[in-house]
Amino acid sequence: MSTTQQEIMKRKDNILLNVLNVFNRSGNKGDDTTEEMAAEEISFLAESVEKNDSAMDVNEDDSMEMADNIARQCDMNTDIADIKIPQSATSTSSREPEWVRKTDKRQRNYQKTLNDSKSKETTAKSQIDESTSSINRKVQIPRLMESLVENEIVNRESIVKAMEIQRNGVDKRRWLDILVEDFGVDREKLFREVARYYNFDIVDPTAVMGNKDRLRFIKQALQSLSPFYYEMAVRRKVLPYELYTNGYDKLIVITPDTTHADVHTVAKAFQFQKYEIKFVTLNNWNELWRQLAFDQGAKQLGLDVGDFVESKGDDYDRELEKSLEEEVGRGKLSELVEGILIDAVRTGASDIHVVPKGSFRTEFHFRIDGQLSLWSAITDVRAEAIISVIKDRGKNLDRFEKFLSQDGYAQRVIDNTVIRFRFSTMPIYGSDMRSKLESVVIRILRGSETTTGVESLGMQKEQLDVFLKAINKPQGMVIFTGPTGSGKSTCQVASIKTIMDPSLNIVTIEDPVEYLIDGCRQIKLNHKLDFEGALRGLLRHDPDVVVIGEMRDKVTAEMAVKLANTGHLTFSTLHTNDSVSAITRLYNMGIEPFLLAYTINAIVAQRLVRKLCDRCKMVDENVDVDLLTEFGLSTKEIEETTFYKPVGCGYCIKGYRGRTGIFEVLTMTKEMRQTILKSKDCVDEDALRAHALKNGMHTLKDSALNLVKQGIISIDIVAGLAIED
Fold this sequence. Notes:
Elements: H1 3-26, H2 34-51, H3 60-74, H4 87-90, H5 98-101, H6 104-114, H7 118-137, H8 143-150, H9 156-168, H10 175-183, H11 187-197, H12 212-223, H13 227-235, E1 239-245, E2 249-255, H14 261-269, E3 274-279, H15 282-294, E4 299-300, H16 316-328, H17 331-346, E5 351-358, E6 361-368, E7 371-378, H18 383-393, E8 406-414, E9 417-428, E10 437-445, H19 461-471, E11 476-481, H20 488-499, E12 506-509, E13 521-523, H21 531-538, E14 545-548, H22 554-565, E15 569-574, H23 579-589, H24 593-599, E16 600-612, E17 618-619, H25 625-630, H26 635-640, E18 644-645, E19 656-667, H27 670-677, H28 685-694, H29 700-709, H30 715-719
Parallel strand pairs: 2-3, 4-7, 11-15, 11-16, 12-13, 12-14, 14-15
Antiparallel strand pairs: 1-2, 5-6, 5-10, 6-7, 8-9, 9-10, 16-19, 17-18
């Protein structure tokens, strides 16, 4: 390479380095927007290239690459054609940006550009346009994209297609988002590589979890934002992390998307002198966000006692109603109830139990991972007032009716996700007989988006193969059975999503509807159309697949069996302890044996069990060998298995985090059909179970012990299931 060429390359590198330094400094200034500085730098670059003599010329491709790098550093979604040169970069005005004045060399170059003639300005614009048209003519792969390809994060064809979608699309998505949403690229790997490429530090927030002081700082910093910036911080997943004070205050901000322009906007809104953006994985961000909600749990939610009126006197009822009206009218109480709903969603609770414990004590219990635990209590407001405000949050609830059971519903957008709530109220006794107390249970329904296919349910491979074969048959019945809260509805939705196809007419009849499933026709029951009437009308609605929420009685069971026997694939649920018991339950309802024998494809019994926390679980050296032997484990299996026990840390709840399913999948065989057909007064369950085991069925206990061997659950969980073969 000649000396002249080396000078050209050195000049290009210096220009780009100056641009990057400007962008890095721009995060801590509010004088000029990033787009203005990018446009000014492009204008300077283009004119400098144009006016230099031939020995310093830079060809079109190099100029285009530099301009493209500038635009990508400004915003990953910005096209060169979208950047407009501001008047400040081309006019003869004396105003100079602050970043130019900071460096003498840059000031001289900038002043020289301002003093150029009108023809120079036109030439600069034309060169930018020429570079832009060149980009449009030929899709180039910048260095970041080359890095993604080299590290096998994504292939080159997907990147080119994503750039074309971005250029031709109307939704203005970034090509990174297009790769994740349209091409299924692993989000964490993609954004981690982007962060590494731009030298963003990677943070592990484990040390913060459970640290009340650190969590309190994060919460206080978030609460200092205005509602607009708070909503933007939640939407873009931006959290303040820690504050450095070394002569000046520098805020560390963490996010799983370090290159989004809104991250800088949120970081500036915290109003610290300086800030630094660091990368955190999406899973860790979600867990930290959950910890922020947990930081409030199990404490008294105090309100100003003086803000509310405590009424006493002879005319109790009249004074009580007056007091309640005053308390309900306070905005603080409404905000508190809304905060409880938000906390429940963020902590992953499935239910909220509102339990009055007296006239002036109301407890809130969250059911998390199947366990009910006290979350908070209000001790300075009348319980009737709190219940009235909760009723006001939902529809179809009358807060003045205190002697009937009521059902209602509500919908909220929490953390940019639509959440539905199902309310149930019931009058209860209290220590003060004059109080009209009610218990309220709120079921949290997060939507079917959280449920994917049956592969995510946790079935063993043998069970999954048998189950997939059963649900892909054109007709027959698939029954899900288990106690309340065992995941039957979730399993049902996962099955529907697995077989869903535009060529199928899938109709559901549920009361209530727990999940809204896109692609299904979900019948809306009302006071004029009951469950039985909907089932009768369904036969004339030309269904291919029918989902019946629950076979409650003989009428619904007969209709479900009739649908399965007339060429429809039918899904439904029952409340029995195991799969074989479902056959006995239907037989006792009055279903004919020949219908049971030839319409059932599969029966799935299931339970949900708590998983051990991967971060703190500990090897259990003192296992009860007699108990393990009683469960059916051989001496060899006990010796070869590493057993774990719960410990507890800031990441989990008493050593457990999350739940998984255990399953028992029963399919019909010729011997089982013969046994059912021979039934007279009752079904021989022992014979059916023996045939099923011979056919390779794994029982609930087998599935649970398999999870114990894998170190996913503890042996105590198996002992607490009370299941028998």
